[in-house]
Amino acid sequence: MKEKFMEKDSTRSILSSLISIGIGLVAGALVVLFVVLTQKDMGLREAWEGIRLVIGGLFSTGRGVDGNLSFGFNPANFGNMLFRATPLIMTGLSVAFAYKTGLFNIGAPGQYLMGVCATLFIALSIPTSQVPSWIVWILAFVGGMLAGALWGAIPGALKALLNINEVIASIMTNWIAANLVTWFFDLSNLKNMVENTKSGYIYKTTFNNVATPKMLLDKLFPGSQVNGGIIIAILFAIGIYIIMTKTTFGYELKACGSNRHAARYAGIKDRRNIILSMSIAGALSAAGGALYYLSGNTEFFWSTYQSLPAIGFNGIPVALLAICNPIGVIFAGLFMSMLDIAGSQMTQLTAFNEYITDVIIAVIVYLSAFSLMIKSWLSGKKKGHTVKDTSAASSEAGSAVDAAAEGETSKDAADKADTADPEEAAAEAETTEETEPADPVATESEKKEEL
């Protein structure tokens, strides 16, 4: 029997994510209402505007002549959403990939920073007057991924060789990376000395004529920061999906994540695969930082020791919202980026300040992490229905047995014969022939002939 649509695991995954998003949006609306009720100079109109921007801020086009909010297709908002979603997708892939292999990669911020550091050093140190800029871009991107892979391999090796929990090891490497990157940039000559108001920033990669190509996306979304990085991120997500579901290597990684001891018994090198898993996760996270800063639109503030980059931690709710599915990470990253755009629109167009919008986004992000729990609840509910159906079927079967014990009428027997399955009837007949005792007269004649 084919599996029903509502009983499929993929359906429950999508439903759990949608329920989480819905709960988060409702919670965000409640936060807006609470703020309005506590402010004397704000009324229901401001509350309604805030709620509309929480839900549809991506489509906001500003305020009209009459002072009311206007909505429609905003190419700048859409382009900026794609640009900001790029690192979110990559860090989400990093967390999801490690989770699928039985590891929790909370070290994405440190891997992200190490990738950014290596990328900017390569992109700004190799003169494009001697080496073509596109080659410098490739070297910077690959170099950033290698730096992230090496940094991710550290907690992986500690887990594989010494059985040290990867969460603890990753937290330690996060802060080590933050201070190392700060020290490297503090000693370098990459600090922006041209624009005096940005003394704490590193040069943009465009100062060395290195930038990610637009791939015609700037024509579709004029006025935005979008570039080809989003296409690269989507290709990475598809590649990870193929590796995890269609290759022997992906199967071995998942087998080690399920039970490393059983995998070792089956001949799989569990220690090697644990280190490889964290290395790949680190490379994906670093690729997010490389794509973000190779765009040429953004500047890196070198005093990173003050706080770890939020983009690394935001990969965790992105992965959870996507149920750690690489393809789902694409849509989860776009959704989280959309919330970021909605928060910017609220700050620019309403009286809600940036802290309120941060609270709204944080609530939605926090509730999105419950998608796995909601999926388990849906699965449990479905199993409950199955048990009830099985009990009902057993009860009906018991009633049928009682009726048979009491005796059937000839009409009931005829009806039963008419509705019986032909294959079952043939099987019963064959069994009856095999077990029916032989005719005693015929048996006696056969014995005489033998004598």
Give the tags.
451 residues; mainly alpha; 18 helices; 72% helix; globular
Question: What does this molecule look like?
Answer:
This protein is mostly helical and 451 residues long. The protein has helices spanning 9-38, 44-56, 75-100, 108-125, 133-162, 166-187, 217-220, 229-246, 248-258, 260-265, 270-293, 310-321, 326-349, 354-368, 371-406, 410-419, 422-435, 440-450; strands spanning 60-63, 69-71. 72% of the residues lie in helices and 2% in strands. It has a two-stranded antiparallel ribbon. Helix 3 (75-100) crosses helix 12, helix 3 (75-100) packs across helix 13 and helix 4 packs across helix 11. It is globular and about 70 Å long.
Describe the strand arrangement of the main beta sheet, using strand numbers. 1-2
Measured between the Cα atoms of the first and last residue, the distance is 58 Å
Q: Return the structural class.
A: mainly alpha
Radius of gyration: 32 Å
The profile of the biggest β sheet is:
2 strands, antiparallel
Helical coverage, percent range:
over 70%
**Average pLDDT for all residues:** 80
Percent of sequence in beta strands: under 5%
List the total number of helices: 18
As residue ranges, the low-confidence spans are 386-451
The run of helices and strands is: HHEEHHHHHHHHHHHHHHHH
Shape: globular
Strand elements, count: 2
Summarize the entry for a quick read:
This protein is an all-alpha fold.
